[in-house]
Amino acid sequence: MNDFWKSYDITHAEFGADYRCYPLYGGIHLTELALSLAFIAGMAWWYRRSSARTRRRILIGVTLLLVLDEAALLLRMEITDARTLLRLQNVHI
Questions:
Q1: What pLDDT is stored for residue 82 in this prediction?
Q2: Calpha distance 17→19 (Å, rounded)
């Protein structure tokens, strides 16, 4: 689960091409899918029952979280690429 939020590129760079996590559609994966579905259904229910003002705040918050998530991913990829480049040049951080 430590690598759950990482992209495939970051995981590949850290652990190599042969790294395997848990099997697709196995018990753990299906549990994660079920929990995600329950969370999404709960959020949709909450959104529908909210006032217009609260809905607007929810939309702004979700938009900000998506932008921050993408920025964090790009920053992590830049750090990983920089470290890989320095290793290739035999320079240690």
A1: 67
A2: 6
